[in-house]
Amino acid sequence: MMMKQFIKFDVELRNDDRLNNDSRLAYAYLYDRMQSSIKHREFFDQKVNAYYVIYTVEEMIKDLGVSRNTVINVYKKLAELGYVIKKKVFNGATRFFLPHFHDDSADSKPSKVASGNSNHINSKHNTDKTAVTAGVNINHQNKTVNISEFDLMQNVVDGLKAKAAFEPDLINTLVKYSENAHCLYQYAQLIFKTKKASLKRALKHGYIEARKALYFETNCHMQDNLAKTMRNLIIQTKTNHKIHNKTAYIAQALYKFFDAAVLDYHDRMNMNVVKDFKIPIM
Predict the structure, then answer these.
(1) Per-residue confidence (pLDDT) for residue 9, from 0 to 100
(2) CATH architecture entry for 11-147
(3) Is the pTM of this model over 0.90?
(4) Domain ranges of the chain
């Protein structure tokens, strides 16, 4: 006779009207798997300083018994509401961090980190109750470490400073209007993607100085204006309820912003050429 398997279901999820039953059940599966992830060091992200879950779309399709689009929308909804933070990995599966996860076993006894086979990560196991905290409680080398939403946002900020050359004014603007680390990451991604597309389009049309025009390091004028532009766009999308696709609205405005930045940079470079021009003495 086969034994029944159970997963935790947070009663608080039932009170969140923004979630449908598929989203609630999907989060329960993610939460359940995290109980296994925290016992395995290979599921600890050194950069984020937190454990994560791998739950592919295909797995969730099978577990929920729904379509691919439904699962994709469920993951998107959970991320938008801050229940999960997604981190895409090059040539790897997407990692899910759970800001509200709490390791119940840590309250009674330390959990040991397993070094052996981790295949059982993908299996379901019996659990009892769910506790929700403001951060993520993980067990690392027999010490309970709290990973808060602030810590996760700080990790994104550090990356924007070191790798993207974002100035403090731009970073502060994005942080101020971001509900969580995922939201902050999404705003930054919009900037990266639209800037890259604008650069490609400008080079195609013969603007040879486009790279310098769109590099933050070589065009100091752009970041100041970008911070103001992002602030205005975010406020508009949060207050104007007629804007249904907020991402598309911001992206379209950023395309125009970066295109204008290229033209402005070229105009200034041409003006410098005119100023430096001297009539040769015969």
Answers:
(1) 63
(2) Orthogonal Bundle (1.10)
(3) no
(4) 11-147, 153-275
